[in-house]
Each structure stands twice: as C-alpha cells, then as structure tokens.
Design brief:
mainly beta, 1 helix, 124 residues, 7-stranded antiparallel β-sheet
Length: 124
C-alpha cells in the first residue's frame, strides 16, 4: 500500500476556493467524498433521489430551508438531509461548509440542467 497519508487543514483548503456553490473534493473514502464549498446567497430548491447528504458548518452559518421548516446551522453543527427530501441552503453571509456524501451525488440533485450543476469536481 503506497497511499500517501496526510492530514487536511480545512482553513488552508477553504482559502483555495474563490467562488460560491462550487464544491471541491478534499478526500474520498469507501465510495464517499468529503467536499468543501463556500455558500453565499440562496441555492436552488432540489432533492437527491438516491443519496443522503451531510452538511457540516466550519465557518459562518446558513439556513437549510425545507418546504415546512428552516433549520439554522452554526459552526460545529451538522445536518443530514435524507434522500428524496426537497431542500435549499441559504447563506446570508459567506459560510464554509464541509459536505459528506456518496461520490455519485450531483450538487443540484434532480435539477440536472441548472447553471449551478457541477459534475466534474476539482480536487483540492
């Protein structure tokens, strides 16, 4: 096994991200990806047919809107959105968010023709 084992410093990785709503891959394990993204403003309403998503706030805060409620996440808090549940993240100020989800997950879920859809993610 010649795999390079290194720690990841989140602040360094986030400093490499100049834009919003464009996740980057920071690590992979067991068919899952650890993605980093900066949020600002409102994303699109969407859902994922096959994948659950975990959102962990590293810096800042954001609201996860559902059709029937809104949950505010602060640094050090995470939320799991089950597959099939329609949701929309909204960040009133810039937020740094770690996502943990299957490698097959497309950021816009069922909205495959959105201008925000990212299918070939950059690796940090």
């Amino acid at each position: 096994m010649n795999q390079k084992i290194e720690k990841v410093k989140l602040s360094e990785k986030f400093s490499l991200i100049p834009d919003f709503w464009n996740p980057r891959i920071a690590g992979e394990l067991n068919g899952q990806q650890v993605k980093l993204a900066k949020f600002k403003g409102a994303f699109d309403w969407h859902h994922h047919e096959q994948e659950d998503e975990l959102f962990l706030v590293v810096k800042g805060s954001f609201d996860m809107e559902f059709r029937d409620k809104t949950i505010t996440l602060q640094p050090g808090e995470f939320l799991i959105v089950p597959r099939g549940v329609e949701h929309r993240p909204v960040a009133h100020e810039e937020a740094e968010v770690l996502l943990f989800e299957p490698a097959t997950t497309v950021n816009t879920g069922n909205l495959t023709d959105s201008e925000r859809t990212r299918t070939n993610l950059e690796r940090l």
